[in-house]
């Protein structure tokens, strides 16, 4: 027995339409203990009924799903269109609105081609860029070596003058 839109989840859980989360949970736990398929080994419809019970609890325990369900749930004959117990509508029936023509869509512009990628975003450009970076590192290492060499020479010259 699959859950359909015609099933009233409030009736399945045996709770009122304005029940809070704790009432829904306690009712589910109470019914789950008695209606579990393992408790009814000879009943072939027990699994479907239990799945319907689980679907009802899942829907009514989540506030967003419950609000969505309440907007689309089936109405019984003795309930008004807004779920109130009186059959009379609390508001007057909506008046038909004036028919309007659909708005015209603006003419679709042709799609612009994607912008050209910079040279370093192409595969060959990436290779060139990585080689440039490697060369920059080599230049930096050479500059550091030259600086160190000149520093050592300067210190050596100072030591020689002092000695």
Automatic annotation (TrEMBL):
GO terms for cellular component: cytoplasm; nucleus. Residues 8-73 form the J domain. CDD domains: DnaJ. Gene3D superfamilies: DnaJ domain. Residues 64-122 are annotated as: Disordered. It comes from the Eukaryota. Residues 65-78 have a biased composition (Basic and acidic residues). PANTHER family: CHAPERONE DNAJ-DOMAIN SUPERFAMILY PROTEIN (PTHR45504:SF3). This is J domain-containing protein. It comes from Cephalotrichum gorgonifer.
């Amino acid at each position: 027995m699959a859950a359909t839109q015609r099933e009233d989840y409030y009736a399945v859980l045996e709770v009122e339409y304005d029940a809070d989360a704790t009432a829904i949970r306690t009712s589910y736990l109470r019914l789950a203990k008695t209606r579990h398929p393992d408790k009814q080994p000879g009943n072939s419809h027990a699994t479907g009924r239990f799945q319907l019970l689980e679907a009802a609890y899942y829907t009514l325990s989540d506030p967003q799903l419950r609000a969505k369900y309440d907007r689309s749930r089936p109405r019984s004959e003795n309930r008004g269109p807004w779920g109130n117990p009186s059959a009379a509508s609390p508001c007057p029936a909506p008046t038909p609105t004036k028919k309007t023509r659909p708005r015209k869509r603006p003419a679709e512009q042709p799609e612009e081609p994607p912008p050209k990628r910079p040279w370093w975003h192409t595969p060959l450009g990436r290779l060139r860029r990585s080689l440039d970076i490697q060369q920059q590192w080599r230049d930096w290492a050479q500059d550091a070596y030259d600086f160190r060499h000149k520093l050592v020479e300067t210190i050596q010259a100072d030591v020689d003058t002092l000695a």
